[in-house]
Structures are given as C-alpha cells and as structure tokens.
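Much of the work behind modern protein science is quiet bookkeeping, done one molecule at a time. The protein below has been through that process, and both of its lines are reproduced in full.


***
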Amino acid sequence: MIVAHLTTSAFVGGPERLILGLTASLPPSCRSVMALFVDRGRSQAFGQRLRELGLETITLAHDTPHLPGMVRELAGRLREWDADVLCCHGYKADIVGLLAARRAGVPVIAMSHGWTAETWKVRVYEALDRACLRRMDRVVCVSEGQAEKVRRAGVRPDRVTVIRNAVRAERFDHADPADRGVLERMFPRAPERIVGSAGRLSPEKGFGVLVEAAAIVARSDRGAGFVHFGDGPLRETIRRRIAELGLEDRFILAGHRDDLDRFLPHWDLSVLPSFTEGLPTVVLESYAAGVPVVATAVGGTPEAVADGVDGYLVPPGDPEALARRMLEALGVDHRRREMGRRGRERIRAEFAFDAQTRRFQGVCAGLVSQPREDVANDDLVPQRKPTR
C-alpha cells in the first residue's frame, strides 16, 4: 500500500512529529511518500529532514494563488506514485488535496489537528477547511475534543475516526544532567525551580495569560523562574508586558530552538495556557520526560492530563487559577515528582505509536478496499482507480 502525505511546514512541530512517527512505525508493506508546498522556501528544512530519513519527498512547483496548477501537479504525482490513499495535514493541504485526489481517483483522508482562528485570513481558510472536511472520505482527529468540533462542522459521524497523537517516549530516556546548567544560565540568576512552556506566540496559545500568572507566582515563590521556547507575532507584545511586570530576570523568552528535547526533562513544571487545542504534543512530551503539567481544559487536553493525578487542569483565560495551580505544584517537591512519574507511565501505556499506527493503517486499508459508493458521495468523485 502506498500512502501519500501532503503538508507544509516551516519547522518540525507537533503535526510534523506525528507524520514522522507514523511513517517510521508503518510496516514494510506500507510505503510513505511526501509532497510539500514550497511556501516561499519555508518547507526546505522539513523536506531535508524527510529525505535524510529515506522518504521520497517532492516539493510542488506551483503554489498559492495558483490553485489549478497545484491540483494538476499533485494529481499527476499521485498517478506517478500509483498512490492508494492521500493523507492531508492542514487546511491548505485539505483544499488542494481533496481536489487533486478526486481528479486522480484516489481516496483522501484529512488529519484534523485543530483550528486556531488566529487571524481573519486564517478564519477564512478554516471555514473553507470545514467545507472540505464534509467531502473527505475520512477525517482522522487527534482527540475526541477535536472530533466533536468536526462533527459539529457537518462531517458525517461514520467518517470521523479518533487516533490520538503519540510520542516516542524513549527520546527522553538519556537526559544529560549538564543541560540543566545550560538552562539555568539562560537566567541572570539561576532559579531553584524552572517552569517551562513551548509553543507559537500567537493569540490562541494564551501565553499572555501565563505572563500574568507568572507575576502572581513570583510574588509568592522567589525561587521560581519561567522560560518559554517558541516565537510568533506576539513576541514583542509579550516582551513588553514582561518588562512592565518587572519579570525581565524571571521570565526568559528563549525563542525557537530545534533542541528543545535536551531541555524539557530539566523543567520542574510544564505549563500550557491555550484557549484552543487539538491534542497538544508538548503535553505528551512533557509527560514522556517525567515533567508534570498545568494546562487549560480545552480541546483534547483533558484526554491527556488527569487532573490532580499527573497534573492540573484550569479554565482558559484565568491567570489567578493558573497561578494557584502552579504554586500548588511547585510547593511540594516529592508530590510534583510523583505526578511526573505517573504521567510518564501513562504516556508509555496510552500514547505510544504502535497502537496509533495500527489504527491509521486500518483506516487506509479500509478505504482502499471499499467500493466507491461507500466513500464520499459528491460531484468531484471520478471512478476509483483499480485496486491492485
């Protein structure tokens, strides 16, 4: 079975790691091939990573706003590869991939990671995405929370499948103790306890709320320091607010780094203050590294965080509640370490790639074997290509 993936990426984040994990875990009987949008060269780094892993990867010559050219080119590639199924990641991939797959007579899956509503332009694209999802042969959602949103968008329930995000926990098995010192030296004065966060500095991620909560924590816990890994359009706004609150020495904006794995095991607490999520990979990675989590109860996050067991859940947009739970977690070392241990055990039991990959393979195989009339019934559907 040949599974083609269509995506775009400026860096290797949660969705990209899901793609890498899935392709690496599929059996030899399944071959993965990759198509990337050029996106002004921003996909080069991810494309290079895919090629280094031995995956056949092409970058489409056509790009926005040349939709017909992108569709023709991708459909041609699907025929050349003799692809059995196309898997689309993101709203741009969903739009182009649906049209190209119908032209090539290939069943198409959308991987629904979540919607951000970050800007008016993104909101327009996400509205188009919802329309596309209603015509997909299958929609794979990374959480039950996202699946509920997809069903509310009008996708038939029998076409929605939940395959939760997964992580390779063994990435964190051999943390270097020296990296704790590297992390501490990011601060003017080394903190006793480090609260870490990671993600794009954009409105839906809620990191402005974290800054407000950090100011509350700092008044009660003089040994706590905060470090954030990631960049985005709100960086300058957040930097100014950190300065206004007098947190320059206590809240470090470390920017985007490709080596987050080396630092994450040395956090004492991981915080995610999002307003919306699919199933956040940083939460799974934190637990895999043995770090407890305080996060907002949005999207699929409650499916990963067991409140009061391996972390805490708080309402979105509430800095007081966020600060209260951070102080509670930071206040008792042995309880915090026990929470991290429980999270680590749960990730290995419930969020490993083996089970997720088997489910994904089953979805693909089911589409390949199904009669044409049992999948999406719309005016874009040509005759299915013959089954090998």
Observations:
- The CA atoms of residues 34 and 126 lie 23 Å apart.
- The mean pLDDT is 90.
